[in-house]
Amino acid sequence: MDKKKLVMFFGKRRSEPDPFLTLGNKRSVYYDFFDKGLELGLRVFLANGRESYRKGLVFENVLEYKGKEIFEKNKEEITADFVYDRSGGISFPNKKISSKVINGIEFKKICCDKFKTYKFLGDSYMKKTYSIKNIIELKEMFKKINLNNKYFLKPKDGLGGKGIFFGYAKDLLSINLNKKDCYVLQEFIDTSSGIEGIVKGLHDLRIVFIGEKIVWSHVRSPREGTFLSNVSQGGRIIEIDPKRIPKKILEKATLIQKLITSKYGKSIFSIDFGIENGEPFVFELNDRIGFPTEKMESKTIFINELYNLLSKI
């Protein structure tokens, strides 16, 4: 009987022969993931860049994992039984193969567009968010809101904290918007009061679900003098035990998980929360989840639950 084939699909070409060379303290965890696949009796592949994708579930010129941190070039076309998509964007997968891919295209569309995220979750979970296409729309919006309140202005499909502006509404009028981008204007979440027992001051609390299970959580704090907690922007990250997360936040996270699962099926995703005076608000949803680092307690459960989810598709 032929072994099942799992493909991890990266949109950007990675180095060879070691595709995880640049991943620092996450490198060994990616290899742990591939070793686990072999242990489970799978053939595991890395599709190295978008040029390796053909159609449907077909890939070519992939790297096949042989164990002991060794990949070998496989020039033949292979048809995957399931795909773990790390390609980013919304060009993959199409609807026909979404049931064989983590995550499906409709859920990716929700995560990739911050205004669609707001429309999906609504005011019960997020602060007021507005879609802005250009400076004219921004000026029109400012006729309807309190100019003395603080807002975030950010690309609706942005990543890593790039292109984000913050300040009083009246001060945002002087910004030169990139004509190629669409933006969202979002009411400010004041996280300066911290999370009791976890962090003091400004923060971003990330809770990662695989299927219905919380597998990883961490809190990020911005470097002094900034408000962006993204690690790429100099933020500090600390892993926390999910049992330490306050009940109110866990309840809200679970309700969101059930909403996502009921509409889009079991997925891997994170919810980024900001806590304002004890009340949790969602910053964003993410479907592109990087692996834990080698020193994090969650790395084993993360890998095991990911394969558990793959087995169900």
Task: Summarize this structure as a short list of keywords or feature phrases.
globular, 313 residues, 3 domains, D-amino Acid Aminotransferase, Chain A, domain 1, six-stranded mixed β-sheet, Dna Ligase, domain 1, 7 helices, alpha+beta, single chain, five-stranded antiparallel β-sheet
CATH superfamily of the largest domain: ATP-grasp fold, B domain
CATH architecture of the largest domain: 2-Layer Sandwich
Helix content: 10-25%
Give the strand content.
Answer: 25-35%
Strand arrangement in the largest pleated sheet: 6-5-2-1-8-9
Class computed from helices, strands and strand pairing: alpha+beta
Mean pLDDT: 90
How many strands appear in the DSSP assignment?
18
CA-based gyration radius:
20 Å
The end-to-end distance, rounded to whole angstroms, is 19 Å
Short recap of the structure:
With 313 residues, the chain is of the alpha+beta class. The protein is 23% helix and 30% strand.
Task: Explain what this protein looks like in three dimensions.
A hairpin with a 2-residue loop joins strand 14 (204-210) and strand 15 (213-221). The strands form four sheets. A six-stranded mixed β-sheet has the order 6-5-2-1-8-9, with helices on one face. A five-stranded antiparallel β-sheet has the order 16-15-14-17-18, sandwiched between helices. It has 313 residues and is an alpha+beta fold. The protein has three domains: 5-102, no CATH class; 109-114 and 191-293, 2-Layer Sandwich (D-amino Acid Aminotransferase, Chain A, domain 1); 128-187, 2-Layer Sandwich (Dna Ligase, domain 1), CATH 3.30.1490.20. The protein has helices at 27-39, 105-112, 114-121, 135-142, 169-172, 247-264, 299-311, and strands at residues 5-10, 43-48, 53-55, 58-59, 62-67, 70-74, 78-79, 82-86, 101-102, 129-132, 150-155, 165-168, 183-187, 204-210, 213-221, 236-239, 268-276, 279-286. Helix 1 (27-39) crosses helix 7 and helix 2 packs across helix 3 (114-121).
